[in-house]
Amino acid sequence: MRVTVVIPTLNEEESVGKVIEGFKRLGYNDILVIDGNSTDRTREIAKEKGARVVIQSGKGKGQAVAEAFQIVDSDVLVLIDGDGTYLPEEVEKLLEPIRRGIADHVVGNRFANFEKGAFTRLNLIGNKVLNALFRLIYGVDLHDILSGYRALRRDVYKSVELKKHGFEVETELTVETLAKGYRIMEVPISYKKRSGKTKLNPFKDGFKIGWTIYNLLIRFSPARFFLMFGLILIALGLIVGLYVVYEWFKHISHDLLAVLTTLLIVSGLQIILFGVISDFVFRSNVQLRREIYELRRTLEELKNVDGKED
Fold first, then answer.
1. Measured between alpha carbons, how far is 172 from 193 in angstroms, rounded to an integer?
2. Tens-digit pLDDT profile for residues 116-155
3. Are strands 31-35 and 76-79 parallel, antiparallel or unpaired?
4. How far apart, in whole angstroms, are the C-alpha atoms of residue 144 and residue 77?
5. d(Cα 79, Cα 149) in Å, to the nearest integer?
6. How far apart are CA 226 and CA 218, in angstroms?
């Protein structure tokens, strides 16, 4: 497999050189550093260590990753942060499931072995809460959707649609993979204390990620997305209806509120029904894309076998 290592950076002069050297020692020479206009020596160090450096056209980690996906054309793309928190020598853990053909997108689970001080108490709690929220809403058993160490097959990184420009990109990558029917799995990795100051704002970025988890649900399961709105309308309708009935027993009529009760409940039921129908159509499309993908992969394997025999 042709593997390209992509490192999004912004002022990572303390660590980017070591990250590049780590991959070079392992024989991975196709390394792309996509830099967000660093004001330190990040780009110079990356070039000195033998990496290809591109200055991103926009701002934010998400935009950098999306731009890298357009530039790279290798069989597999490895995505890693340039802050020294991930170990290059663990890249084989991420590539092995892809080589074995059992996964299309592999995520490194940091919680399997993290160094003391790698997470602040607030960040650790926030990560746990966001991951639990994801599992609850999506029903998918993933424990570190915010990990920055990943390996993706070409089919995946060329087909995902990334619209988030900030730290929500990992969440969007995960959801897009699931929504498009690709196989995703986690492997345990180590996580070290970062070099330099973190750019993540626990409250601001945490809120954005939480909202993204729910907002992206429509790409994965329209039924679940619309269910909440439908239930809210039905609940409001029942509350208003109970008030109307309570007042009616006191010989006070509220005709307009009775009409509102009916509208709220009927609208809620219609929204839920619309979500169920949308979900059925969406799932059918995902299944069809998955079957086409499997057929194409089988044909590629047969072509490779014939080539070896010749």
1. 25
2. 888 888 888 999 999 999 998 888 899 999 999 999 999 9
3. unpaired
4. 19
5. 6
6. 8
User: What distance in Å separates the CA atoms of residue 11 and residue 27, rounded to the nearest whole number?
Assistant: 26
* Six token digits for residue 275: 């979500």
Q: How far apart are CA 227 and CA 233, in angstroms?
A: 10
Q: What percentage of the chain's residues is helix, strand, coil (to nearest 5)?
A: 55, 15, 30
CB 220, CB 178: distance < 8 Å: yes
pTM of the complete model beyond 0.85: no
Count each helix (H run) and each strand (E run) in the chain, helices first.
11, 7
- Alpha carbon 181 to its chain centroid, in Å, reads 14
C-alpha triplet 81, 171, 134: angle, nearest 5°: 130
C-alpha–C-alpha distance, residues 297 and 295, integer Å: 5
- Helix residue spans in 49-120 (DSSP H): 61-71, 91-99
The CA distance from 207 to 25, in Å, is 39
Does the pLDDT at position 166 exceed 90? no
As a dihedral over the C-alpha atoms of residue 137, residue 109, residue 107, residue 203, rounded to 10 degrees, the angle is 60
